[in-house]
From TrEMBL:
It comes from Pseudomonas salomonii. GO terms for molecular function: ferric iron binding; protocatechuate 3,4-dioxygenase activity. PANTHER family: DIOXYGENASE, PUTATIVE (AFU_ORTHOLOGUE AFUA_2G02910)-RELATED, PROTOCATECHUATE 3,4-DIOXYGENASE ALPHA CHAIN. This is Protocatechuate 3,4-dioxygenase alpha subunit. The lineage of its organism: Bacteria, Pseudomonadati, Pseudomonadota, Gammaproteobacteria, Pseudomonadales. Residues 39-67 form the Intradiol ring-cleavage dioxygenases domain.
């Protein structure tokens, strides 16, 4: 008897089927506290080809630097109008755009302070596991002292920095593998 090989599995293309109710391009509501920021970009592979089935999952602190999570024991207030979470699918050209608030700084390990940032999980076909990265904001004074950003070689930090364009929309792209411009991904 001949047996067929077991197929390998990746996170796509089914990672967001059935969960479309979580997709939203605006993570805020009118009563959300803080400065609203729009973030736009594109997901491409190492050859520059569009990845048109990716999805970004965004996690972040509120404008005061407080996560809406029981493990965040800071005395700061939770914003009842901000969840700090959203899912953003890309379009046929691999483009995405979402609106959120600029998060406050949060505590790091050993008494350090982390610069305002968004945690982003990238899901796409061909990935065995999601990829984890961050978005920092260009010109943020705390970037120079951020303990995680300091671990990234200076020539690679730009892949984590969203820069505002002439309209004030922060541009940040995800480049998957294969080049020296690949987005920095973390394993933690």
């Amino acid at each position: 008897m001949t047996l067929n090989a077991t197929t390998s599995h990746t996170v796509g293309p089914y990672y967001h089927i059935g969960l479309t109710w979580l997709n939203r391009e605006d993570l805020t509501v009118p009563a959300t506290l803080g400065e609203r920021v729009a973030i736009s970009g594109q997901v491409v592979d190492g050859n520059g080809d569009v990845v048109n089935d990716a999805m970004l999952e965004v996690w972040q602190a509120n404008a005061a630097g407080k996560y809406d999570h029981p493990e965040d024991e800071q005395a700061k207030a939770v914003d009842p109008n901000f969840e700090g979470f959203g899912r953003v699918p890309v379009d046929a050209e691999g483009r995405f755009r979402f609106t959120t608030i600029k998060p406050g700084s949060v505590p790091g390990l050993q008494g350090t302070t982390q610069a305002p940032h968004l945690v982003v999980l990238v899901f796409a076909r061909g990935l065995v596991k999601h990829l984890l990265t961050r978005i920092y904001f260009d010109g943020e004074a705390l970037n120079g002292d951020d303990p995680l950003l300091a671990c990234v070689p200076a020539e690679r930090r730009g892949t984590l920095i969203a820069k505002p364009d002439a309209q004030g929309v922060h541009q940040w792209n995800v480049i998957l593998r294969g080049t020296d411009k690949e987005t920095v991904f973390f394993d933690y």
